[in-house]
UniProtKB/TrEMBL annotation:
Residue stretches spanning the membrane: 12-32, 44-65, 77-97, 103-121, 141-161, 173-194, 215-236, 242-261, 273-293, 299-316
Keywords noted in UniProt: Membrane, Transmembrane, Transmembrane helix
UniProt domain CAAX prenyl protease 2/Lysostaphin resistance protein A-like: residue ranges: 182-282
InterPro entries for the chain: MmRce1-like, Rce1/LyrA-like_dom
UniProt superkingdom: Bacteria
Protein name: CAAX prenyl protease 2/Lysostaphin resistance protein A-like domain-containing protein
PANTHER family, A to Z: PROTEASE, PROTEASE-RELATED
Length: 329
């Protein structure tokens, strides 16, 4: 990452224009498909496509605009991901006009994920240059994941007490969630890389350089949250979309505090990637899926809960340190 503030500002601007520009374009087709009989399945397919876009935008900025130089192994990795993203955009839009669309996109995701994961593992040493080495600070990664699981599970104790979580199906849901975690690792690598490489690797250190570590990560959380807006209107909560947008902004700000902490502590993008996977899987156990109907009461409860759980991490040494984290990008 450049030390020139003007360059940093330009890179942030270019990233946001490309990222939100592509999201706006594909959202046209997302909304056009929302009245079809298979609307939910199509919207879910678009939601997966969304996850490619942050990393794709990062690659364009780094390679095509700012002209960063990387090792051949990383350039190959970037090229495969970029081509896969373009192919995925074309396929997803095309499938939105078909009665049984989605299967081709799933095949692309599986093949691309497996191949990219292979490239990362066989070129582990070279991937250190983009903080994607699987074995780097593995104990710290395991620690931040364990802390996260304990915090989130503890926060759901009231749901057990009030009977909102079906205890009879708890073990079944846990087994299902673990299976999903393994599947996400193997065939969803490209998706979680797609988000976290854009948000945490690229945008976080740049925003923190401009606004400080705490304010920078909060601004990132807002951007990350508002980025979900089209999906709130079509997939996550069509009946209460405004509530959904607010909920995502709140969740992403507070969750982003912890993911930002985890990234700075481990110096490895695998940490937020795996935490993102775990967070989604825990949602299967307690949230009942990705669709919901929100109320202002539930939003207030979410604000208080997430604030209590994650705001204290702003007081950790990772956020207090004045040292420039050049390793982050």
């Amino acid at each position: 990452m450049s030390n020139d503030i003007k360059i940093v500002r330009r890179e942030i601007r270019d990233f946001l224009l490309i990222n939100f520009g592509i999201i706006a374009f594909i959202s046209i087709f997302l909304f056009l498909s929302s009245s079809k009989t298979n609307a939910e399945g199509l919207a879910a397919n678009f939601a997966i496509l969304f996850m490619y876009i942050p990393a794709f935008s990062t690659i364009i900025v780094l390679k095509k605009i700012s002209k960063y130089e990387f090792k051949p192994e990383i350039d190959k990795f970037f090229k495969v991901f970029a081509i896969a993203t373009i192919l995925r955009i074309i396929t997803t839009i095309g499938e939105s006009f078909l009665p049984n669309g989605g299967w081709l996109s799933s095949i692309i995701d599986t093949i691309v994920s497996a191949y990219l994961l292979y490239l990362v593992l066989v070129n582990s040493h070279e991937m250190k240059d983009i903080n994607l080495c699987f074995g780097k600070n593995s104990k710290k990664i395991a620690t931040v994941i364990l802390i996260f699981i304990v915090i989130v599970l503890a926060s759901n104790i009231p749901e057990f007490i009030n009977g909102q979580v079906n205890s009879d199906k708890l073990m079944e849901n846990i087994v299902y969630a673990m299976m999903n975690l393994i599947i996400n690792f193997l065939v969803g690598f490209n998706l979680f890389f797609g988000e976290e490489f854009g948000w945490r690797y690229f945008l976080q250190p740049r925003l923190q350089k401009l606004y400080g570590k705490r304010i920078g990560v909060i601004i990132l959380g807002f951007i990350w949250g508002i980025w979900h807006a089209p999906l709130c209107f079509t997939l996550y909560s069509p009946k209460t979309p405004i509530h959904c947008v607010v909920a995502h902004v709140i969740t992403c700000i507070f969750l982003g505090i912890y993911l930002g902490y985890a990234y700075m502590k481990t110096e490895n993008i695998w940490a937020p990637m795996l935490l993102h996977m775990v967070n989604n899987v825990i949602g299967i156990i307690f949230g009942g899926g990705y669709t919901a109907v929100y109320t202002w009461e539930s939003l207030l409860y979410s604000i208080l809960t997430f604030a209590i759980l994650f705001t204290p991490f702003l007081l950790t040494k990772e956020y207090k340190s004045n040292k420039e984290n050049e390793f982050l990008s």
